[in-house]
Amino acid sequence: MAVKKVGEKYRCGVCGNEVTVTKVGGGTLVCCGQDMKKIEG
Q1: CA angle 38, 32, 23 (to 5 degrees)
Q2: Over the stretch 2-21, which tens digit does the pLDDT of each residue have?
Q3: Which residues constitute the domain of residue 23?
Q4: Domain contains 4
Q5: Stretch 26-37: mean pLDDT, rounded?
Q6: Which of 12, 17, 22, 35 has the most CB atoms in a 10 Å sphere around its CB?
Q7: How many domains does the chain have?
């Protein structure tokens, strides 16, 4: 899933790492070899 705006949160489905977007640069976030999933809310 492509990063679209500041403040979005993503979680790794494998290890549970979470990130919050502070600067949009395009592309996708990857952890443990898989795309991270956007956390809704």
Answers
A1: 45
A2: 999 999 999 999 999 999 99
A3: 9-39
A4: no
A5: 95
A6: 12
A7: 1
The pair of three-digit structure tokens given for residue 20, joined into one six-digit string = 């919050």
What is the C-alpha separation between 34 and 39, in angstroms, rounded? 15
Please, which residues bridge with residue 38 across strands?
10
Please report, as a single letter, which amino acid is at residue 14.
V
- Hey, what are 28's tokens? 């996708």
Burial of residue 36, with CB atoms counted within 10 A of its CB: 0-12 exposed, 13-18 middle, 19 or more buried: buried
Number of helices (H), then strands (E), belonging to the chain: the values are 0, 5
Domain containing 24 — which CATH number? 2.20.28
